[in-house]
Amino acid sequence: MRFVWLGLVLILAACSKVDNTKAIENGGYTYDENCAACHDRPPAYLHTVPPSLKGLFASKKLTPQQVRQIISEGINTMPSFGTTIKGKDLDELMLFLETQ
Amino acid sequence: MRRSGLLVCSFKIGLVKLLPLLFFALIVAGCTKQIRHPLRGQVLEVHAESAQIIVQHEEIPGFMAAMTMPYVVKDPSNFPRLKPGDLINAQVVGSGDKFWLESVSVTGHAEAEKPLREPPPPVIKVGDVFPDFEFTNQDGKVGRLSDLKGKAVLLTFIYTRCPMPNFCPRLSSAFAKLQAKQIQGSHFVSVSMDPKYDSSSVLRKYGLAYMNGKAEGFANWDFVFTKDLRKVAGAMDLEYEEDSGQIGHTMVIALIGKNGKLAKDWGSQWNLEELEQALASEAAR
User: Fold this and answer.
1) B192, B246, B274: best to mutate for the A interface, most A CBs within 10 A
2) What is residue B164's predicted lDDT score, i.e. its pLDDT?
3) B183 Cβ partners below 8 Å, 6+ apart?
4) How far apart are CA B270 and CA B167, in angstroms?
5) Does the N terminus or the C terminus of chain A have fewer Cβ atoms within 10 A?
6) Per-residue pLDDT for B209 more than 80?
7) This prediction's pTM
């Protein structure tokens, strides 16, 4: 009987896990369109070289809240993306960045 | 009787011969099928000589977004009665790539919401006086381009939210490198193409990023917005257009001599050495 309960709990846990695959994919498109030009292939002529965003979340240098703020408001020579990446797009981009 | 028989006969022969032609005509008619959509809008300009009116119209669902554009009016008898400001209902009729208006009826009259289109500002060339304009800079200080007379001014157009590294960030990075050369008698002006967003404080923050946080740099580099943007941008034939929160634009750098005249200008083709040489030579005059 104990195993039946355990099985039920595991099934429920599996069912309740949100499938983010599509959202991460969308976030990847947003990244390619808006971030990659500077963060993946920084042109040499830029005043400051933008950092790579690989391992951004793993490094824990910034909290997710800080990352959101930087995307929305910009920082240093990075422009503000507050009017173009917001709401669902920003959420999906954050999910994508977490996978990097 | 005989005569009508002959007619029927010739019709039959004609029909057989004409069938391929009819078939072809049907295909052509199908390809150039007319479309019709109701239009509601306001006449902004009337150009009877070219049978055109410029209409600011509402969205035409499933066909066209709300916009202001010229239309040919099919029936020229409409022209004596159509006036700028008239509110109209009409049918947009299209065939192939041609569109025109039919069944134009005037439903009222109102002051045009937008001012009538002004003629585009004149484009200047090297040797012409650069149009003077009033601006507000990153410190909220109001100034004029003519205040910089006696200096060699390198002027360009940017907007702080520009995400394209090879456009505004490249221009601002180049200006930062040139400013670091400390060319005596040189001054830099970055004019915002986004005055709605780029307030003095936004421009100040943006500028500081290109001056490594040193506000002394503003002594010979102004980041400005101006209500005369159309005139100044037009003088340099710069194109800019807001689209989905971003601004699509071309690239222009102008070198204004100590006498206030355009000494040299560049589009998207320029390099740092060329700019430095031209600026130094103009500043040394």
Assistant:
1) B246
2) 92
3) B152, B276, B279, B280, B283
4) 12
5) N
6) yes
7) 0.67
CB B159 within 8 A of CB B198: yes
Overall residue count recorded for chain B in this entry? 285
Q: Tokens 């002004």 identify what position?
A: B118
Report which of B53, B165, B127 is spatially closest to residue A39, judged by C-alpha positions: B165
Residue listed under structure tokens 């917001």: A86
Which residues contact residue B119 at a Cβ distance below 8 angstroms, ignoring those fewer than 6 apart? Answer: none
Query: Of B249, B281, B282, B242, whose CA–CA distance to B268 is shortest?
Result: B249
Question: For B205, which residue in chain A has the nearest alpha carbon?
Answer: A76
Give chain B positions within 8 Å (CB) of A89: none
Give chain A's domains with CATH numbers: 20-99 (1.10.760.10)
> What pLDDT digit, counting tens, does each position of A50-85 carry?
999 999 988 888 999 999 999 999 999 999 999 899
The angle formed by the CA atoms of residues B220, B121 and B128, to the nearest 5 degrees, is 55
User: What's the pLDDT tens digit per position in B256-265?
Assistant: 999 999 999 9
Q: What is the mean pLDDT of the segment spanning A10-20?
A: 58
Q: Given an 8 Å threshold on Cβ–Cβ distance, is A45 in contact with B163?
A: no
Quote the tokens at residue B85. Answer: 């400001």
DSSP 3-state of A8: helix
